[in-house]
């Protein structure tokens, strides 16, 4: 039974790693040049601090997920996984939220602030951002589930009343 649990956990950690690396690569390669009323407009993830934060946070979580895939089951480092899972979940959630807010403003604009939507001019860029956000959302959901599972496995022995 223990081997089945470890195998399922490995699969979910691999899926979280795959979603995080996909989101990072898609966001980091998002770039498009367009002309808007005779002015060249370059849309890139590094033009926005929120999108840059998304790439950095998901890069950190990707490295963490990769390292956990090769951590031996008998290692004492597994005791710290709950704490680092909390940090990883907070990173992916906060960076996803920030990137989603910027993507929404890019798509809809903000008439109160006088910001025009840019997705009509750089549609490929916006589609790439949307793809990164979909992969980022999947990573966020999986990391939240892994965090809950980690908390359950650590706290379950502590809650047994004899």
Number of domains: 1
Secondary-structure element series? HEEHHH
Distance between the termini: 24 Å
Number of strands: 2
**What is the count of helical runs?**
4
Specify the biggest β-sheet: 2 strands, antiparallel
Instruction: Provide the spatial order of strands within the biggest beta sheet.
Output: 1-2
Helix content: 55-70%
Average pLDDT, to the nearest integer?
A: 88
Percent of residues in beta strands: 5-15%
Low-confidence stretches: none
Protein name: CASP-like protein
Membrane topology: Multi-pass membrane protein
Subcellular location: Cell membrane
Main location: membrane
Structural key phrases:
162 residues, mainly alpha, 4 helices, CASPL, CASP_dom, cell membrane
How would you explain this protein's 3D organization?
It holds the Pfam family CASP_dom. Homodimer and heterodimers. A two-stranded antiparallel sheet has the order 1-2. It is mostly helical. The mean pLDDT is 88. Helix content is 67%, strand content 7%. Helix 2 runs antiparallel to helix 3. The protein has one domain. The protein has four helices and two strands, in the order H-E-E-H-H-H.
């Amino acid at each position: 039974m223990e081997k089945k649990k470890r195998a399922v956990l490995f699969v979910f950690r691999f899926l979280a790693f795959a979603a995080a690396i996909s989101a990072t690569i898609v966001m980091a390669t998002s770039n498009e040049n367009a002309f808007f009323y005779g002015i060249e407009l370059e849309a890139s993830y590094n033009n926005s601090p929120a999108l840059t934060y998304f790439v950095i946070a998901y890069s950190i979580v990707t490295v963490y997920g990769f390292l956990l895939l090769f951590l031996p089951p008998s290692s004492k480092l597994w005791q710290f996984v709950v704490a680092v899972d909390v940090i990883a979940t907070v990173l992916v959630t906060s960076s996803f939220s920030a990137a989603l807010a910027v993507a929404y403003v890019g798509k809809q604009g903000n008439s109160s602030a006088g910001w025009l939507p840019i997705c009509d001019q750089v549609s490929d860029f916006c589609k790439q951002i949307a793809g990164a956000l979909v992969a980022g959302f999947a990573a966020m959901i999986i990391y939240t589930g892994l965090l809950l599972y980690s908390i359950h496995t650590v706290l379950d022995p502590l809650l047994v009343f004899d």
